[in-house]
Design goal:
The protein has 349 residues and is an alpha/beta fold. The protein has 15 helices and 12 strands. It has a 6-stranded mixed β-sheet, with helices on both faces. The chain has a 3-stranded mixed β-sheet with strand order 3-9-8, covered by helices on one side. Helix 1 runs parallel beside helix 9, helix 4 packs antiparallel against helix 5 and helix 5 crosses helix 7. The protein is flat, with a radius of gyration of 23 Å.
Length: 349
């Protein structure tokens, strides 16, 4: 399952530095707006200590973690919905991601230019949200013109889509992101909303770029789904050895971002393990065992018979697959089994 998360924000808030720290990839982090013209793309592992534990138990030759594709997209400015800055190019890049990580500058540093010449995180968030809302309002208006004729003629799909567009339009006109209203949609309406590929209907996670990670934030910032990072420190940590980091008592919090982004998309992990490899597989929460098999190959879903399943904790406690079978903690499950995060599975097809 390929996951793509866009890193967005105003110019000079730390997006490209964060991307470098996440991916250990050298990118241009010059101190001027629009230094990122084309989006940088990097693959980031989702930290999971269970992988190494299972690999050790199985004597695996390889470990393959779950990953997220992070895309560092050029800085957004006021007026982007009307073509300012990189305008439509920026907005098109956002449409192609599954979720949005919005980097917000909270730290003070007179040597680093702020595009608005003032540190005001709430205002910065509002600027970006406004541009996304304006872009989506335009898209929704155009779509209604296209869908209206079919809706008036009574075509079911068009009627549903028109209803979704009208509900979303009300939110946009009230300058609100439509996340809360989408939770009230029927499954059919949610499917339509997803297919529209609107910017503001994507899940948002805020990264607050701070100079003191332990310092409390204003309640308006704390209330949003977020991760606090000292991005400059994170960049410095990737140049240091593990021994030096341990000696200085430093801790990286980058793993929090990968895990939060993973959870934001409603995803979880199951494992396969053996001598050749131990691997993490990404599936939506609530997947059945056959649906989980599809992450490996379509045949695993279509030809599913049953599966041997045990949770990681139980397998590690037993010490081996055969010992788990002997003690009865290894289970045979059928097509209706709902996968749990951390399950270890062998498919029978």
């Amino acid at each position: 399952m390929s996951l793509k998360v866009g890193i967005v924000g105003l110019p000079n808030v730390g997006k490209s530095t964060l991307f470098k720290a996440l991916t250990r990839k050298v990118v241009d982090i010059s101190n001027y707006p629009f230094c990122t013209i084309e989006p940088n793309i990097g693959i980031v592992e989702v930290p999971d200590e269970r992988l190494s534990q299972l690999a050790q138990l199985s004597g695996s030759k390889k470990i393959i973690p779950a990953v997220i594709e992070f895309v560092d997209i050029a800085g957004l400015v006021k007026g982007a919905s009307e073509g300012e800055g990189l305008g439509n190019k920026f907005l098109q890049n956002i449409r192609e991601v599954d979720a949005i990580v919005e980097v917000v500058r909270v730290f003070e540093n007179p040597d680093i230019i702020h595009v608005h010449n003032a540190i005001d995180p709430v205002h910065d968030i509002e600027v970006i949200n406004t541009e996304l809302i304006l872009a989506d309002l335009e898209t929704a208006t155009k779509r209604q013109l296209k869908t209206g004729k079919d809706a008036r003629s009574g075509k079911k799909e068009a009627v549903v889509e028109m209803g979704v567009l009208q509900k979303l339009e009300k939110e946009f006109q009230a300058a609100r992101l439509p996340h809360s209203i989408i939770t009230t949609f029927s499954d059919e309406e949610k499917k339509v909303a997803k297919e529209l590929q609107l910017l503001t209907t994507k899940p948002f996670l805020y990264v607050y770029n701070v100079s003191d990670i332990d310092r409390a934030l204003p309640s308006e910032l704390e209330a949003r789904p977020h991760v606090k990072l000292d991005i400059k420190i994170e960049e410095e940590l990737i140049e240091m050895s593990a021994a030096d980091i341990a000696e200085m008592g430093l801790v990286s919090h980058l793993g929090d971002l990968a895990r939060q982004a993973y959870a934001l998309l409603g995803l979880m992990t199951y494992f396969t393990t053996g001598v050749e490899e131990t691997r993490a597989w990404t599936i939506p929460v609530g997947s059945t065992a056959p649906q989980a098999g599809a992450a490996i190959h379509g045949d695993f879903e279509e030809k599913f018979i049953r599966a041997e399943i045990i949770h990681t904790d139980k397998l590690l406690e037993a010490g081996s697959w055969s010992a788990a079978r002997d003690t009865g903690t290894l289970r045979l499950e059928g097509k209706d089994y709902i996968m749990q995060d951390g399950d270890v599975i062998v498919f029978k097809i």
